[in-house]
Amino acid sequence: MIRNKSNKIIGDSFVSLCFCDAREQKSISHKNTKTLNSTKSNFNLFEIIFVVSFLITGISFAQSNRSTLNNGVDKYEEKKYTDAELDFRKIVENSPESFEAKFNLGDSYYKQGKYDDAIKSFNGALESAGNDDLRAKIYHNIGNSLLKSNKVQESVEAYKNALKFNPNDQDTKYNLSYALELLKNKDKNKQDQNKNDKNDQKKDDQKNQQNQNQDQQNKDQNKQDQKQNPEPKDQDAKQDNTKQSSQPKEQKISKDEANRILDALKNNEKDLQKILRKQTGKVKKTDKDW
Length: 290
Known about the structure:
The chain is mainly alpha-helical. It has a domain at about 20-185: Tetratricopeptide repeat domain (Serine Threonine Protein Phosphatase 5, Tetratricopeptide repeat). The protein has 11 helices and no strands. Helix 5 (about 115-125) runs antiparallel to helix 6 and helix 6 (about 130-150) packs antiparallel against helix 7 (about 150-165). The N and C termini lie far apart (about 120 Å).
């Protein structure tokens, strides 16, 4: 955690402006001095410091606007930020040129976590800022709003702009260092993530290649097994063919020979024996009628 040289966590250094007439300055100034003394010794990172400043030279407010602005400041100090927003917004609507109202409205938005609205309001105040010190404070507040919105790179630029107008602002310097450290870590994390993604992709490619190689090996093995061990059906068929070929063939007789045998039967048995001896094998009786 980044700390300043007094070992206090750097705060927002937000400045809210209250415009009052000369008769009101004394009591409000006294109250604000007490607020500053109590917050200076103990404030957290991004904690708003509520400062009341009195700008009366060259600015003329109607009595209703002065009253509304002071009411808004009181509500802000009571942490009634929504009510304060309503008062400051009412003044901005009635007097769009009011620097104080736009600046304070930005503070109220910030406290409610409405960072985009805060940035818009601060930019509006920037257009009518009367000196470099105010411009530095506005850019500081814009930087904090951007940082809260996780727009780290943009917050760095805002802090740099603040230091252009007030190079000696220690809070802005430390917040800039804090933002740069976040940006550095963010880039490092992104690089590490890209490296991990590449490693994961490489592992996936290797795994896919291994699976493909294994599939090819399985196919080759199956082919080899089929060559060495043919299917049983084909083997049985081959064995049947071998068995049939090994059996002796039965000798057949022609139709003429059959007729002669029949005639011999009619004549006498001796002629039949004579004919039969001429046959080289055993005669199979046929069931056909000739």
